[in-house]
Amino acid sequence: VYCAGIGAQNPNLNDDIEINTIFTNVTGFARILIYSYNYFKVRNKGHIVTISSLAGIRPLRQSPAYSATKRYQIHYTSCLAQKANNEKLPLKFTTIVPGFIRTDMLKHKYPFTTSMEKGTRLIYNAIELKRRYTTIPGKWRWVEIIWRAIPNSIWEKIW
């Protein structure tokens, strides 16, 4: 289960914040997933779980590196699932895309925030059910559907 990362709102585009976020959320993430994939490949079984973020669904100007790296995680996990399928490996992949969960990382008050207890339970259930991809909690699925429907030309002007 990969559930790690850093991120911050970065309205001034501070170089250190962007680079540290990219290094942690992309390089660290990729190293863990590469190791895990190869480990499970040798054993011919395994379940790789990535906990990303709803921030990876659409670009967010407030946190460019965080948003982009969370998108990378979602996409990279899909690439590995495709690779395992092509190699006929019995590996399972779960990508969990949570909305706002009250953790120490959440510094601001946001709508639809979920308690740590409920978020943990939803994540656990998704892993147990071996869901390939899920957005939690359920109300965020509607947000994701709406966000995906907005054309980039409009999104870039309103968000």
Helix content: 40-55%
Radius of gyration: 16 Å
Query: In this structure, how is the largest beta sheet organized?
Result: 3 strands, parallel
Stretches where pLDDT falls below 50 for ≥5 residues? none
Give the number of helices.
5
Average pLDDT score: 92
Record the strand order, biggest sheet.
Answer: 1-2-3
Q: Report the structural category.
A: mainly alpha
Which H/E pattern describes the elements?
HEHEHEHH
Beta strands, count? 3
Distance between the termini: 31 Å
Shape: globular
Kindly estimate the percentage of residues that lie in beta strands according to DSSP: 5-15%
Structural description of this entry:
This protein has helices at 15-43, 64-86, 116-128, 139-149, 152-158; strands at 46-51, 91-98, 133-136. The protein has 159 residues and is mainly α. The model has no long low-confidence stretch (mean pLDDT 92).
Please give a quick description of this structure.
It is built from five helices and three strands, in the order H-E-H-E-H-E-H-H.
Describe the protein's topology.
Blueprint: H1 15-43, E1 46-51, H2 64-86, E2 91-98, H3 116-128, E3 133-136, H4 139-149, H5 152-158
Parallel strand pairs: 1-2, 2-3
Helix pairs in contact: 1-2
